[in-house]
Specification:
Blueprint lengths: L2 E2 L8 H13 L12 E6 L5 H12 L3 E6 L7 E2 L12 E2 H10 L3 E5 L7 H5 L2 H9 L4 E3 L7 H14 L6 E6 L9 H11 L4 E5 L8 H4 L3 E3 L2 H5 L4 E5 L23 H4 L6 E3 L12 H4 L6 H21 L2
Parallel strand pairs: 1-7, 2-3, 2-6, 4-5, 6-7, 8-9, 8-11, 9-10, 11-12
The structure holds phosphoric acid mono(formamide)ester.
């Protein structure tokens, strides 16, 4: 695998999940594969789970790891070509990327959507420049429009916990005070649509995701109706995608908060969230602390999804 930015890069999902389960049974079984290979993890944005789980995955495979927080200690980077660099940005990404590529064998990039310019975000300008100019295999640690390491971990978690072959999985918008990218819900929808699950998306009017991500999912504007009979509830906030409101918060209505009364409508569903989560905005304390909450095993599976992806990249070097 030379890049990992979306569901198509992983190929057959059953094979990927089977590989993940094997890795989970013995996560050190390929601990010499990455010997003398270096992973560079480049963060344009904050992280807890992605940083730790991906570094742990690289260590499982015997790799060396360099972590760069671009906004803390590196030169401030210009990302637009053609700009007269007479401001506060000292280095251009077009030099910085190939230089970073000189010091490693594999690159992971986290670069969120700016939520100002939809075209720029959905072109995935930053990670695509890494793919084009680094000379190294590149994988997404959450880019502007997708978070595939998270979605792969979510799929592994659902496969571990599902009680029927074709579970009903509901992606539910929930309120948040700040504008968040659509990357996690886009990506979750993309991966769920690649399965044969019964997949439903529920959100208030105005929060429609891009049609290429909604795919064949059923969209239900009545959250309670969507929850009926669900086996998994995946809570997440996102900002508006549709014009003219791209990147805006249209509602912070806590009637959409996921609570015990709504979970009672489900088929004793498991609650999932990628984390970090704002309690009593997205989900009540009662639900996230309940036995049906699987947010911690879900986060633990980030190590497994990252190990599979790095393993496949190392095998292609
Ligand atoms: N879920 C996730 O990607 O968490 P971090 O933002 O902490 O990495």
């Amino acid at each position: 695998m030379k890049k990992f930015t979306d569901v198509h890069d992983i190929g057959d999902l059953r094979a990927a999940v089977a590989e993940a389960m094997n890795i989970k049974a013995d996560r050190f079984s390929f601990n010499t594969l990455g010997r003398n290979k270096t992973l560079m993890m480049i963060f344009f944005n904050s992280s807890l789970r992605t940083r730790l789980s991906t570094q742990k995955a690289a260590m499982n495979l015997g790799m060396n790891v360099i972590v760069l927080d671009v906004n803390q200690g590196a030169w401030k980077l210009e990302t637009e070509r053609g700009v007269i660099m007479d401001g506060d940005k000292s280095e251009h990404l077009l030099e910085a990327i190939p230089v970073m590529g000189c010091y490693c064998d594999v690159i992971g990039v986290r670069s969120f959507a700016g939520l100002k310019d939809k075209a720029e975000d959905y072109e995935e300008r930053i990670i695509n420049q890494f793919i084009k100019y680094s000379g190294r295999p590149v994988f997404s640690m959450e880019a502007a429009t997708r978070h595939p390491l998270q979605s792969f971990a979510d799929l592994i978690t659902i496969e571990e916990y599902k009680k029927t072959d074709r579970p009903k999985v509901v992606l539910s918008w929930a309120p948040h005070p700040k504008a968040l990218p659509q990357a996690v819900p886009n990506s979750f929808a993309e991966w769920m649509n690649a399965t044969d699950y019964d997949f439903v998306i529920t959100h208030p009017h105005g929060y429609e995701l891009a049609s290429e991500f909604v795919g064949n999912a059923r969209v239900e504007y009545d959250q309670r109706k969507a929850f009926e009979g669900a086996d998994f509830i995946y809570g997440k906030n996102w900002s508006a995608y549709a014009d003219p409101n791209y990147g805006k918060v249209l509602s912070t209505d806590r009637n959409w908060t996921i609570n015990a009364e709504k979970m009672a409508l489900t088929n004793n569903a498991y609650f999932m969230h990628c984390l970090p989560v704002r309690r009593n905005m997205i989900v009540t304390d009662e639900v996230i602390e309940s036995p049906q909450s699987i947010v911690i095993p879900e986060a633990a599976n980030r190590e497994i999804s990252a190990t599979v992806v790095l393993k496949r990249i190392l095998e292609s070097l």
